[in-house]
Design goal:
The chain is of the alpha+beta class and 183 residues long. The chain folds into 2 domains: 2-103, no CATH class; 110-173, CRO Repressor, CATH 3.30.240.20. 56% of the residues lie in helices and 10% in strands. It contains 7 helices and 4 strands. It has helices spanning 2-12, 16-40, 50-68, 74-97, 99-105, 120-126, 130-139; strands spanning 110-114, 117-118, 148-153, 159-163.
Length: 183
């Protein structure tokens, strides 16, 4: 019985030394991440495309590992964080300079709803249903789908609703895939 109680107690509380390590390493890792992010600039935590989102999640996961894993030292963890930020910087830098690389990394936004019509083929390809498009329309306060010119699935997975009249084409739709507007 004593061994079982010791096992449960050890499972719930590893001791003050473990908590002290987490506090010290947590503060150091967090401060290190803030410095790395400050040096790298605003683009590092943007979610302009799926790759950016993956890097942001990976940064959080790495920070968590640094804080709670006894096998990962602060210097190792900060090196991993700096590497992720550096790689994200390189990908963004290459994307800005070489259009072919940007096309390789980023997908184009996709038109899902246009001038009162759901673009069923595009919605199927992107795995988006009418309820999700309607939710996006409601989120901007449009009471009727006819009040909306377009709904676009952006490269980061968000839905953008373009309100306005359908009388002239929206310039903001220039770089958007518009498959089967008549479907």
């Amino acid at each position: 019985m004593t061994d079982e109680l010791a096992t449960v107690t050890d499972w719930l509380f590893k001791g003050w030394q473990s908590i002290g390590r987490i506090l010290i390493v947590g503060v150091l890792a967090y401060a290190g991440l803030l410095i790395i992010l400050r040096i790298s600039g605003k683009r590092t935590l943007s979610k302009l495309n799926a790759f950016d989102l993956v890097v942001t999640v990976a940064l959080g996961s790495t920070l968590s590992t640094i804080i709670v894993s006894r096998q990962t030292g602060v210097a190792d963890g900060l090196t991993a964080l700096a590497l992720l930020v550096f790689l994200q910087y390189v990908v963004a830098w290459l994307s800005v300079r070489w259009p072919w690389f940007e096309r390789f990394i980023k997908d184009e936004p996709t038109l899902l709803f246009h001038q009162g019509h759901y673009l069923k083929k595009a919605m199927r390809e992107q795995r988006v249903n009418e309820d999700e498009v309607l939710a996006a329309i409601r989120s901007v306060g449009a009471p009727y789908p006819d009040d909306v010119m377009a709904v676009v699935l952006e490269t980061d997975g968000s839905l953008t609703v373009i309100q306005g009249t359908n009388e002239k084409p929206a310039d903001s739709l220039k770089n958007v895939q518009q498959p089967g507007i008549s479907d």
